[in-house]
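Fig. S4 source data, part A: sequence.
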Amino acid sequence: MDATIYHNPKCSTSRKALQALRDAGIEPTVVKYLDEPYSREQLVELFADAGVTPTQAVRTREALYKELDLASATDDQILDAMVEHPILVERPIVVTAKGTRIPRPIDKLDEIL
């Protein structure tokens, strides 16, 4: 099975998801999104495929979330902030032929394996 993981190696959940893919016999394409940032169109597509909104996919625990006052922002404003600051995107995002998920909790990964 082909798979892509948008990965942050510093994130324990992202590392767990990558290991779960490998444990399932899948060697995914690993995109380190902090090095290869998302485009706006890419985020729109990933979120639509995962069935989430930008508001649901933003990392509210990031200091930048508060600094940019994103709690009162629209989805379009959040998307713009995510493109400029990819650290704001919840991680990881995993794509397989069976769908796209932000596996938080990690059990959600099973839905697309």
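Fig. S4 source data, part B ends here. The two ends are 8 Å apart (CA to CA).
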